[in-house]
Records
---
Amino acid sequence: MKSRQRVKAHGEVFTPRHMVEQMLDLVHEDLEAGPDFVDKTFLEPAAGDGNFLIAILRRKLRAIKKQLPPESWPTESLFALASIYGIELLEDNHQDARAVMLADFHGFHQRHGTPCGPETDLHQAAAFLIATNIVRGNTLTSRTAAGEDIQFSWWHRVEGKPGEVQRDPFTLASLRDDGGFDFTVYNAYTACPIEKVHEQEKTDG
Ligand SMILES: C[S@@+](CC[C@H](N)C(=O)[O-])C[C@H]1O[C@@H](n2cnc3c(N)ncnc32)[C@H](O)[C@@H]1O
């Protein structure tokens, strides 16, 4: 708890680490063991300062290290980030959640000798994916603090082009509609290597 006032106003009580781990054990297969575990998506609708998000990322990175060849770790770690989504109402928690994800991602690569300084594509792509996937807003109304629709993106791998990603935006509100994902309201993005996703441009499509 940060303060009684915040508990009362926002229900802000953080889940202890051991409970987070117990809950993630329930989805062990999808998260870190089964086929395509890197791309299995997770959404934290009340992210707080990121304790579930970071635990999910750590497990995915650990599994990538265990199961995949080292040369694929930069790319796969970015696809892992692309699979983790969060929404948080409060500005400070939202900033903390984003910061802890980037710091952990950075730490993983530093420990394995992969350059990940602010000037690298790896860092910039990671920061971009985190900023795009972990948004500040109200899950119940599907709106940002500015009153706009919360927008997420689906990050597809491109068949036959390893390491490439195709971004498809959709609104959170569309997930609640019977029609499912709404991929039609925004222009499409051109496919690109995931390390360059921060430089990607929209097409007219
Ligand atoms: C109970 S805390 C839980 C944080 C984290 N999920 C955990 O289990 O430790 C709830 C968090 O949800 C946020 N929150 C409350 N109502 C929300 C809403 N309608 N949309 C998004 N976030 C919300 C609060 O600001 C707070 O950070």
---
Amino acid sequence: MRRALAALLLALPVAAQPAEPSGHDRLARDLYRELVEIRTVHPDGDNTAAARAMARRLLEAGFDAKDVEVVEPAPRKGNLVARLRGTGELRPLLLLAHIDVVEAKAEDWSDGLDPFRLIEKDGYYYGRGTLDDKAMAAIFVASLVRLRAEGFRPKRDIVVALTADEEGGTHNGVAWLLRHRRELVDAEFALNEGGAGTLRDGKPWIHGVQVGEKMYLSFDLEATHPGGHSSVPTRDNAIYDLAAALSGVARLELPARVGYVTRAHFARLANIESGELAEAIAAVAAGRADDAQLRRVSAEPRYNAQLRTTCVATKLEGGHAENALPQRAKAVVNCRLLPGEDPDFVLRELQRAAGERVRVKARGAPRASEATDARSPVMRTIERVSESMWPGVPVVPLMSAGATDGSRLRNAGIPTYGVSGLFLEHGEVRIHGRDERLAVKSFVEGTEFLHRLVKALAAGE
Ligand SMILES: [Zn+2]
């Protein structure tokens, strides 16, 4: 009795602290900390330091120096490529994660947090990159170390690439490696960011796997006028012209195009949504939605983004003096095009919506976006491993509304699956924003999931 009490008292202060992970989980967490605490922000952050830190860990774990290479196309823009050699029966598996992050300022974050320190608080890891994308980077390196320690002999090489400038900057690591060192990263297929699980009320709900992504293209809208003194106004006015044009753009709805991925995605969603919305989603998945049902689904922004190309005004400027008629008014409209959508069609639709008094011009051309086959054997393996971790939680193929390096790999002929096994609370968007975080439990489960998945895929399952 007394011993039990003593044990309880001893246990109390420990229980109040976060549990210290052991073994493999601790390695993954330590790598995660090391990566988050190296500032890799464009332009002055140091990707090379992060790549070298992970290289050092692999060398310490016994990897041969010829299988661990840091390539640095420009100062501070280093990339790590590391390889666990297989028997060569099958072509390699590439595990891709970017190590650069979006800028974050400590004063914008909540008290007690620092974007460039990994802080564990209330069951979460906080820090810039905890989600995007240093969790996967740390997990992949830890997995490589673990597989080697287990003496695992894969049927294919497992290649980990940690790359620079995914978020911005002119030295995108994936583009550079594909162009200059293709043999280093060449693979039968790849795993990358872009997928995640969704929690509802803290419970796993769906497990999303990204198999395609939309194309990014912005347009400039510009209205011009000779100008004059503001004390003698004219009826026509560049700011009014632009405002009218933007009202037209606000009402523009591009046509819904329901491709295979959207169909498969909606077929799964129909089972987990409820009521009218579920019926409407099922009708879209089956290709028999009427106008009312299409409107019902389109009313949900996240579903609307899957259904059609979207365009939205994101920047505005106009006029040069308070007491002058504006000579110029400009806006930027950012569009996310469905794979296969014709950019000229979008331009024509925008021009039509904006009217004749405003000129619409595309800012460059979008990067093409192939889709990965969501019916492939790799997808079946993802489903099987996911089921072993989260029984009954459906794996749902996704098209990302945002852009990742996955499209670069797909365009280069390497089918890419955005799959992480990291689960986030429904509706929580902190990526690129303040107080970025990932639940400790999710990190631990994601570590185990990706390890099992990599092992299965590398064994040719
Ligand atoms: Zn990212």
